[in-house]
Amino acid sequence: MLSAGDGSGEIMITRGADTSAAFTEWVRKTSEQQGPVQDAPSITITQHDGANKPMVRYHLVDAWTSSWQGPTLEEGT
């Protein structure tokens, strides 16, 4: 388990386009409230190795989105 002493800290998640409706819904719910959401589930982040095998899991409780940035469109892509 990852701990920041008092149990708080920040994590930056960057990801490409995927089909995780559960993660997208968690971002939406917690972005609107800017704090823990009563009915939002805890989330687990899984880090994979180069062969896409799970290496480490981080379980987050009472976590929320503090900021969000959508994709950018670049000319010529």
How do the SSEs run, as a string of H and E? HEE
Major sheet strand order = 1-2
> Number of helical runs?
1
- Mean pLDDT equals 74
Rg to the nearest angstrom?
A: 14 Å
Cα distance spanning the termini: 40 Å
Low-pLDDT segments, ≥5 res: none
Helix-strand makeup class: alpha+beta
**Helical proportion, percent range:** 10-25%
- Sheet with the most strands, sense and barrel status: 2 strands, antiparallel
Shape: globular
GO molecular function, one term: structural molecule activity
Pfam family, one: Phage_T4_gp19
InterPro entries: Phage_T4_Gp19 (IPR010667)
Please specify the SSE layout and strand pairing.
Elements: H1 21-33, E1 43-48, E2 54-60
Pfam families: Phage_T4_gp19
GO molecular function: structural molecule activity
Description:
This protein is an alpha+beta fold and 77 residues long. The chain has a domain at 21-60. 17% of the residues lie in helices and 17% in strands. It contains one helix and two strands; from the N terminus they run αββ. It has one helix at 21-33; strands at residues 43-48, 54-60. A two-stranded antiparallel ribbon has the order 1-2. The longest helix has 13 residues, at 21-33. It is globular, with a radius of gyration of 14 Å. GO terms for molecular function: structural molecule activity. Pfam families: Phage_T4_gp19.
